[in-house]
């Protein structure tokens, strides 16, 4: 069976030329940011969730587009800065956000959020008052009732990026417990 060059005239020749020239094949090109975000955020979240025995999250592409828009909305400050903190509009989703530099790998963002586990007391179902928001970020990552995830980002400053993940249903509900949906 020959190469199906009839389907795409010239493609077989182009592929052979690329291969013969030693150019990196198409499959080795960098993965676009949106695809990396889906892969890396989903994997990192689900590893943290697996560690406490809760079901994995599903990636939702329209939800990720909304998270991307939300991240752009949250950026404040003059051009060249990486400040965020504009009050978020009311939403029925859980949210985690972090500003990082461009070289920060996505799994490190989730790792930063999960460092809050040391401030959570499962026995009393409370976060220590010190770094309470860090604890709440962790609880949102592992909240057992959450089912879908969508993450987005927005460039900010010279070398920064705001990463933002939304969760549905939201976590950290009053009186709720993270590992028992």
What does this structure look like?
The termini are far apart. Strands 1-7-8-4 form a 4-stranded mixed beta sheet. Helix 2 runs parallel beside helix 4 (106-114) and helix 4 crosses helix 5 (132-142). 35% of the residues lie in helices and 20% in strands. It is of the alpha+beta class and 181 residues long. Mean pLDDT is 78; it is low at 1-29. It is built from 5 helices and 8 strands. A hairpin with a 6-residue loop joins strand 2 and strand 3 (83-84). It has helices spanning 11-21, 33-51, 61-74, 106-114, 132-142, and strands at residues 58-59, 75-76, 83-84, 94-101, 120-121, 126-127, 148-156, 160-168. This is SCP domain-containing protein. Pfam families: CAP. InterPro entries: CAP_dom, CAP_sf, CRISP-related.
Provide the gyration radius in Å: 21 Å
The main β sheet shows up as: 4 strands, mixed
Terminal-residue CA separation: 54 Å
**Structural category:** alpha+beta
H-E order? HHEHEEEHEEHEE
Q: Give a count of the beta strands, DSSP E runs of length 2 or more.
A: 8
Uncertain stretches: 1-29
Instruction: Output the strand order for the largest sheet.
Output: 1-7-8-4
How many helical stretches?
A: 5
Using the alpha-carbon principal axes, give the shape.
Answer: globular
Beta percentage is 15-25%
The amount of helix comes to 25-40%
Mean pLDDT across all amino acids: 78
InterPro entries: CAP_dom, CAP_sf, CRISP-related
Domain SCP: 36-175
Organism: Platanthera guangdongensis
Protein name: SCP domain-containing protein
């Amino acid at each position: 069976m020959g190469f199906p060059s009839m389907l795409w005239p010239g493609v077989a020749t182009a592929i052979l030329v690329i291969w013969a020239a030693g150019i990196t094949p198409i499959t080795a090109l960098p993965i676009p940011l949106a695809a990396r975000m889906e892969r890396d955020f989903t994997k990192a979240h689900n590893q943290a969730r697996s560690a406490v025995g809760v079901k994995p999250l599903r990636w939702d592409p329209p939800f990720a587009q909304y998270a991307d828009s939300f991240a752009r909305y949250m950026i404040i400050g003059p051009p060249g800065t990486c400040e965020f903190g504009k009050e978020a509009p009311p939403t029925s989703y859980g949210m985690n956000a972090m500003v990082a530099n461009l070289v920060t790998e996505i799994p490190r963002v989730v790792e930063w959020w999960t460092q809050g586990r040391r401030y959570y007391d499962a026995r009393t179902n409370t976060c220590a008052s010190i770094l309470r928001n860090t604890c709440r970020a962790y609880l949102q990552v592992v909240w057992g009732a959450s089912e879908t995830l969508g993450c987005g980002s927005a460039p900010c400053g010279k070398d920064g990026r705001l990463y933002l993940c939304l969760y549905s249903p939201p976590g950290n509900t009053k009186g709720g417990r993270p590992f028992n949906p």
